[in-house]
Amino acid sequence: MEAQTENKRSHARWSRRIGTLEAMVRKFFLLILISLMLFPGNETGIEAQERPELHVIVNMVQLNVAVTDKHGNYITGLRPTDFAISEDGISEKLATFAEGDGPARSLAEFADQDVPAAPASNMDKPSSTAAQTFDSLISGANVFVLFDTSDYMYRGFVFAQDAITEFIRSLASADKIAFYSYSRDISRAAPLTADRSQVLRAVRSTVAGDQAALYNALLLTLKDAAQNTGRKVVVVFSNGPDNSSVVPPEDVAEFAQSAGVSIYMISTQTAKLEPVSTAVFDRMTAATGGKAYFAKDWRDENRAFASIRDDLAHLYSLSYYPKPNANSGWRAITVKLVGDRLKKYKVRTRNGYRPHPSRFSSDGKTTVSGLAPE
Which range, 125-129, 169-173, 186-190, 283-287, has the best average confidence (pLDDT)? Predict the structure, then answer.
């Protein structure tokens, strides 16, 4: 009897506890229902506050522009008002302008200055002038030299090393120089540095070897160059066609254009014997604002390097902030000279870029790759 009585008492206690819990649950849900009725937009408001807002940040676009006459002589002394830039047919306003090693200045700084009577070409100047001013004109450039050490290079290897060595020595006032070599793989023998002796040692340490994967190596070099600000140039010495790359040259050229890196290529007659390689070299360099050279012998190689050296000394640096443009794909850039007196001159620069949203910053903003940093 006592056990039955105790069981009844225990059952009654559990019943009271369950009843209390059920009452508490009913009150909880009732409070939630009342809250939703009184504040119907509260949940949406919280979600809106937590959702990050994305902004596209379009940085300044920088262009290296060469202006020459019909004889290939460089035209100097041009002013910002002599240039007209359009992007996808949209007229753009110059933000900064510089010639040679002159500092990039805003357009307002040119307003109170006198306009020169006429531009001048190298043909009008003594040859000593270019030699005297080159060291200052090249200042600030980041130059990446990519050397072909594939099995194509068994003949004339030492002559090529000599030509590259002389070229590097001539860039005494360049900001930094990097020296890479390639065959099937790339070797970053001397990463970007101001130490010329380190670069020269790297040149002399190269040896010829495996098959050539030019476009693979060039793409990796361009990616390294794109990490730097200011004028960026890649100078390639190639003794033959590409026979090992998995990267198509069209992708390499587009990346160089979007990153604002000018490509100069010096190749031998061996490469010119293959029409496909010749056409690719010509198109790639022209699209990025550079040049292609095909050397017959070591003397031509030296002349080609000297020509690149001279070209870098006479570039105009133009920049602008793109106006609103719905095109998120390839954007075509056109640079023209303004006025009848300048129509006879030729303009060479890259012809476009592709603004790729590439990464998300901590504040929820999206940055656009392929453009020059502000």
Answer: 186-190
- According to the 3-state scheme, what is the secondary structure of 266-329? EEEHHHHCCHHHHHHHHHHHHHHCCCEEEECCHHHHHHHHHHHHHHHHCCEEEEECCCCCCCCC
Assess if residue 336 is contained within a domain.
no
Q: How many CA atoms lie less than 13 Å away from 76 in the CB half-sphere? A: 20
Number of domains in the chain: 2
123-128 mean pLDDT: 42
Within a domain: 43:
yes
pTM given for the model: 0.68
Q: Does residue 107 lie in a domain region?
A: yes
Domain of residue 21: give its range.
Answer: 2-50
Q: What is the pLDDT of residue 296?
A: 79
Shared domain for 125 and 164, answered yes or no, is yes
| 67-115 pLDDT, tens digit each | 999 998 999 999 999 999 999 999 999 988 888 766 677 777 766 554 4
Residues 93, 222 within the same domain: yes
Q: Are 274 and 246 in contact (CB under 8 A)?
A: no
Location of structure tokens 């930094």: 176
In which residue are the tokens 């460089």 written?
74
Q: Is there a single domain that holds both residue 100 and residue 46?
A: no
Share the mean pLDDT of the chain. 76
Q: Residue 267 pLDDT > 60, yes or no?
A: yes
Q: Is residue 338 part of a domain?
A: no
**What mean pLDDT is predicted for residues 57-69?**
82
Give whole-number Cα distances, 254 to 21, 68, 90, 214, 220, in Å. Answer: 69, 25, 21, 16, 13
Query: Is the dihedral angle over the CA atoms 207, 209, 215, 217 positive or is it negative?
Result: negative
What is the DSSP track for 57-126? E---EEEEEEEE-TTSPBEE---GGGEEEEETTEEE-EEEEEETTSPPEEGGGGTTSPPPSS-EEGGGS-
Both structure tokens of 69? 């006459």
Structure tokens at 15: 């019943």
